[in-house]
Amino acid sequence: MHIEVLLTGNEIMSGDTVDSNSSKIAHHLSKLGLIIKRKVTVGDDQKLLENELKEMTSQADLIIMNGGLGPTVDDLTAEVVASVANVKLVEHSEAIQHLNDWCSKRNLSVNRANYKQAMLPENCDILANPIGSAVGFIVQIGECTLMCTPGVPGELVPMLDIIVERLNEKNVYSGSKILRLQTFGMGESTAQQLINDKIESWPDEVSLGFRASLPQLEIKLTISEKKHLSALLSCKEMVCELLGAHVIGEGETRLAEEVLKLLSEKKATLTTVESCTGGLIASMLTKESGASKAFHSGLVVYSDEMKKKLLNISQETIESEGAVSESVVREMAHNALSMCSANYVIAVTGIAGPEGGTKEKPVGTVWLCWGTEQNLKSCCLFWPLERTLFQTLIAASGLDLIRRHINNLDPLPNYLMQKVID
Amino acid sequence: MHIEVLLTGNEIMSGDTVDSNSSKIAHHLSKLGLIIKRKVTVGDDQKLLENELKEMTSQADLIIMNGGLGPTVDDLTAEVVASVANVKLVEHSEAIQHLNDWCSKRNLSVNRANYKQAMLPENCDILANPIGSAVGFIVQIGECTLMCTPGVPGELVPMLDIIVERLNEKNVYSGSKILRLQTFGMGESTAQQLINDKIESWPDEVSLGFRASLPQLEIKLTISEKKHLSALLSCKEMVCELLGAHVIGEGETRLAEEVLKLLSEKKATLTTVESCTGGLIASMLTKESGASKAFHSGLVVYSDEMKKKLLNISQETIESEGAVSESVVREMAHNALSMCSANYVIAVTGIAGPEGGTKEKPVGTVWLCWGTEQNLKSCCLFWPLERTLFQTLIAASGLDLIRRHINNLDPLPNYLMQKVID
């Protein structure tokens, strides 16, 4: 089934609104294994819309059009569709009924602008709008089915449920299936190269995709028909074996979520003591609901003074080795464990930049320390990246190192350039 | 100038990624008064991409192509462009140099997959990528200039700055001008209504737009010709007067950035002590470069135990009034000020949910306390929102309250439901 999407809206073209609707449309269609082939966006311009729609109807089996159903002058969808379908715009009784009901429920009187929303292409089918005043509609143009949906995201979603139901009745389900693996610590090119080099007999029916969604890399395996399920599962196994401990989990698993799960299973707690990541690790953990089971407190010690005052790091160590050093990160970890009465710790001290670098310790240098009182490990990384990217990757590395530690995972992650010190 | 955008990416077509890049492209071009006429998105499919690109080059003066520059097999942009431009793909020395520099900075060896990124259409111009390994490039196809940019958002933005500069040199500036005001604490509809009701003589030549970019709301004023500059400036003044202290600043000003600026001007420091926001306020502050001038440390006290142990909050107060109470938030603020030797403090304790609510204190209840040792204020908010949205808005409120405090701003922000207690 060849599916295209046509979006209209000046606010999308200007960039003032980020279009999240087409992602919702794609996700809903994917429940039936349907894939969108092409997506076009233009502003609220009748000529432009007609041109695009004409081209689309000549090649697509199904078009989802989104936006332009409202009451204002720049809402053009009904007019455009009537023109391309070569039918009249007529007052649609079902739409009038909906409008009256909608207004009376809200103690509003129907105004002229509202009635515009009930002027629809002749002989169209109505798509109910459980939320807003404007109904959607379906028009058949030649071989092509055109479904017109509202631009307001909250109104679109319930209408998509109706659309999926309607399509499902037509038995369009293709049997496709998607499997996602979340990984950390390996770049897209490294992962791709590894798979290319090591898996010789990759089956054609399983397509391989990558999605860098910082700090994680998602690996996506897709089949288009049910009968390839065993090939899909064997590919998953091969990839998991190859990438080993770089795989965090399946589906949408986030690093912080996984770390909290592992801690909860052990009924253990984790504390964080952060310099250059400035609270980001704590924030990643506490974004997860239920974080309080395993995370009770964390410290942000950003200045040298506060490392001394809050954490009791010795003046001597800071003076002799500097705040970004193995001795300091180990003292931070050690002292935080007892201050915060936690079982596990992640400690970070580094130079996020753009200022603060020296010749010996340039921007991007960072010491991490993690583990338990009895078993603290540390390592130095050098990642000279833009400030917030650096913070994001270092915070994720801290979480990843704890994940590996708890799971006794080996070998070392790909991103560790220097040997870990026990 | 007829401008089109061509986006490629299976992850966009599948809806796994919401395309925010085209919004960034539109925003950057709007600095020169340029408007995108049409935007097409297709998956990583050579045939589809070639078809779209051919059609675009026949009608557009400028095409921005986005995505598909990476090292993997589904990165097809260079090949597609070479095919449509009818030139060969060749190893580009500048791109090789960039790749080698990029890898050596990171102690990585260049692998075969990487080299793919240096295979570019013959005679193309390079667009530097200050962040990633893949350069962008410019190709002239007939009358049409085609600029190819990376799909990773963090890499796209600095390249767009370069593109705007290049276009600016060509004098494409139409004379339009955009003025942005960053605000916090007032919803889009409230702001719109206020402006409609109070500013009677709004000039036609100044268009008014809103962009919710959580936690802030951006108000955008646009003129299409230079001669309307004075109207633009007078509109800005009217809006600023009307919204008063809800305006944080012009341009891209972020709340944390503004707070740090105010603190630096006073040579003062701020500490944070967070329960339900779990380090997010500290993280927002430390994402700003130069944060260390005014932010030296912060505490995340997530559990009751840790409020007692780390912060010395009395057992009695927690037992009698609960951890989410005025007494506790005031003790938190007071004790953090002395522990962290800071001039100003933001303290937060609340229930982010989805669990942990009670009848008296449902999910969404939160106490904030802010100010100096001599002048601590507190207030209770009730925002029953989804967890991360709640955290984002509460963290921003904390920063906003300190901003107002330092600036002696009055009246109270729109979002404060209850009276502030001195």
Structure description:
The structure is a homodimer of 422-residue chains. Chain A is of the alpha/beta class and 422 residues long. Chain A folds into three domains: 3-169, MoaB/Mog-like domain (Molybdenum Cofactor Biosythetic Enzyme, Chain A), CATH 3.40.980.10; 177-250, Alpha-Beta Plaits (2-Layer Sandwich), CATH 3.30.70.2860; 255-406, CinA-like (Maf protein, Alpha-Beta Complex), CATH 3.90.950. Chain A has helices spanning 10-13, 21-30, 46-59, 77-85, 93-105, 112-115, 153-169, 188-198, 229-243, 255-265, 280-286, 304-311, 315-321, 326-339, 387-406; strands at residues 3-8, 36-42, 62-66, 89-91, 119-121, 125-127, 136-141, 144-149, 177-183, 207-213, 216-223, 247-250, 270-274, 295-301, 344-350, 365-372, 375-382. In chain A, the strands form four sheets. In chain A, strands 2-1-3-8-7-6 form a six-stranded mixed beta sheet, with helices on both faces. In chain A, strands 14-13-15-16-17 form a five-stranded mixed beta sheet, with helices on both faces. In chain A, strand 13, helix 11 (280-286) and strand 14 form a beta-alpha-beta unit. The first copy, chain A, is elongated, with a radius of gyration of 28 Å. The model of chain A has no long low-confidence stretch (mean pLDDT 91). Chains A and B meet through helix 1, helix 2, strand 2, helix 8 and strand 10 of A and helix 1, helix 2, strand 2, helix 6 and strand 10 of B.
